[in-house]
Amino acid sequence: MSVRVRMAPSPTGTLHIGTARAALFNWLFARHSGGIFILRIDDTDRERSTPEFEEEILGSLRWLGLDWDEGVGVGGPHGSYRQSDRLDRYQEIASDLIQSGAAYYDDRPSAQLESLRQLAQKEGRHPGYYIRRPDISADSGVIRLAIPQDAPVVVDDMVRGTVSFEAQDIDDFVILRSNGTPTYHLASTVDDVDYEITHVARGEDLLPSTPKHILLTRAMGHVEPFYAHLPLLFGPDGRKLSKRHGATSLSEFRDEGFLSDAVFNYLAILGWSLDAETTVFSREQAIEAFELTDVSKSPAAFDPEKLTWMNGEYVRAMSPEVFNQLVRPHVEKSVGRPLPHDEWARFEEIAPLVQERTKLLPEAGDQVTFLFNDIEEYDENSWNKVMAREGVPAVLDEGLARVSALEVWDAESIEATLREIPESLGIGAGKAFQPLRVAVTGSSISPPLFESISALGRERTLERIGRARQKLG
Ligand code: GLU
Description:
Elements: E1 4-7, H1 17-32, E2 36-39, H2 51-64, E3 70-71, H3 87-100, E4 103-106, H4 110-122, E5 142-145, E6 153-157, E7 161-165, E8 174-176, H5 184-194, E9 199-203, H6 210-219, E10 226-230, E11 233-234, H7 250-255, H8 260-268, H9 283-289, E12 300-301, H10 304-317, H11 320-335, H12 341-356, H13 361-368, H14 380-387, H15 392-405, H16 411-418, H17 421-425, H18 429-441, H19 449-456, H20 458-472
Parallel strand pairs: 1-2, 2-3, 9-10, 11-12
Antiparallel strand pairs: 4-5, 5-8, 6-7
Helix pairs in contact: 1-9, 5-6, 8-10, 11-13, 12-19, 14-18, 15-18, 15-20, 16-19
The structure holds glutamic acid.
């Protein structure tokens, strides 16, 4: 069988990481099996769907590297892959189902249906009990699928195993509203049939819809696809992932400086693993190993800290050239201006040390602004903690003398002379180097001191130590 899978976002919001994870698993499965990955846009909710959200979703998928073979934006043999273009098709199927007797019109007013629902509830029955095929034969109203009551519907799920639904627990659900618009169940099922989808992999929240889709597919005279219901994502506190856990859309992570490769890798381990020990792996490794049947059915915890850690792994694995190129816009943004070649060389001198300490590229910018901009304000905590101590003026005086006497200007020579300060003043290393660090970089958090001083240059270093000394009086 040649595999055909789809992802079907609704353009009613940005791309949620749960949806992105489902897209990723479909993509991995398609690439692993040499199949086709389809992008369909579920935009039947005309009020909430917007072209901006659609653009945002497509952009996020592209950023993540999930290319699609058929669908919106690339076309394909099945005409339009946008549901709003296919309303005629859904109406046609609904009337076919009326013709075949699988579906029926229901024109009972909603107040009547509501009291029937309440009656069922009072009797301890499924709310759909009295909403079965009515005696009256209407020729207008909503169209409902008549659920055959003779057998349970069994979902043979690739992740969850066998899940059985009693027919009496499935209501005769609406497929076409009285204004002629399809429900999600109808549009989604007709598309899956028309596009010859072989496997539907989607979030577990849709499992209750699956028996409806199976019955609808069968009523259309087709065999249902395989289903794989993916475990839901939870926040680190064990509750369902939501805004309260911080960023939840893919573009927010991109804008915060996360790398596509790292996000890809991290999403892949939410419910799946390459093997027992490997956490960091390439797209190629994932494609090679991915099987839907290996997806776990336990809920997966989405942990932003682990994603940040993983991003750091990817930053460290970059070649120096790639790191310098990617980090440059962030550095220039923090500095507030483009950096000409000779100034940028200052950054390049300490780039490897910055790369080691960077988890997110934008952070790198803040670490190094001291190389380019005068210190307008010292970091308040650092100043209070470090500079208010006794003995600091003597440290700065000695640092100043030693730096100006240096003959060779490089990190080694700077280190050699500054390392003599603790002994000469009879103080600990921290007490000697922390004030120098705050004086030179403005903060007690910075790249390593000697390399920072070397990259900053003699003149600027002397000026800064002098200025801090003055401020102390
Ligand atoms: N548009 C639906 C959603 O975003 C698609 C669900 C499905 O994959 O069937 O939830």
